[in-house]
Amino acid sequence: DVLMTQSPSSLSASVGDRVTITCRASRNINSFLNWYQQMPGKAPKLLIYATSNLQSGVPSRFSASGSGTDFALIISSLQPEDFATYYCQQSYTLPPTFGQGTKVEIK
Amino acid sequence: HVQLLESGPGLVRPSETLSLTCNISGGYINSHYWTWIRQPAGKGLEWIGRFYVTGVHNYNPSLKSRVSMSVDTSKFQFSLKLSSVTAADTALYFCAREGEADGDFHFFEYWGQGAPVTVSS
Questions:
Q1: pLDDT digits (tens, 9 = 90+) for A34-77
Q2: I want to staple A12 with a disulfide (CB 3.0 to 4.6 A). Which of A2, A107, B87, B94 is the partner?
Q3: SS3 of B11, please?
Q4: Which spans in chain B are helix H?
Q5: Residue B42 to residues A40, A77, A78, B27, B98, Cα–Cα distance (Å)
Q6: Which residues from chain B sit within 8 angstroms of residue A100, using beta carbons?
Q7: pLDDT of residue B31
Q8: Chain B residue whose CA is closest to A50
């Protein structure tokens, strides 16, 4: 299986901050990388697919980049509704695997 | 608008079979892969497997010997069976629809709210 490692595991930030979450794959996954946001007790929500494509309805303050083994999710100006846990997921090979998650908390 | 809703027993005895159903509305069941993903409390996400209406399926190798999935197109339902459960199978179980872009890129586009399952005697 492809191991996905996110960093940091958690972070504290303030409203308006720029936040970067990184995701590293244990092998080359080209651009087959997706990002999800999960609120407590809720299902994950697709934010970005194929490394950098914003899912319909997702605010433009979310962006992402990367290729190969290293990827990043950027929130340009953190909003109150963005405090959640974020997961990366590779779809390059079966089984699809997720990172361990990054919890974004209020400072 | 696609909506998914999981249902099934919230408590399963050890060594028995966990059975969950996902009711699908607002979309075509005859296309897309239908997927089960689980999440133990406070932990990350684990892909269980996926099923296509033609019978094509893929299961996580870690669970393959215990998993079966099916689709009932007449009832717009997608089902999961996980046999010989243990406490390690206690989790929130999500059904999801797999989306696709450019023919190659797959992602989990629509999710149910999740069904909590506890394995305990």
A1: 999 999 999 999 999 999 999 999 999 999 999 999 999 999 99
A2: A107
A3: strand
A4: none
A5: 10, 27, 24, 31, 24
A6: 44
A7: 84
A8: B105
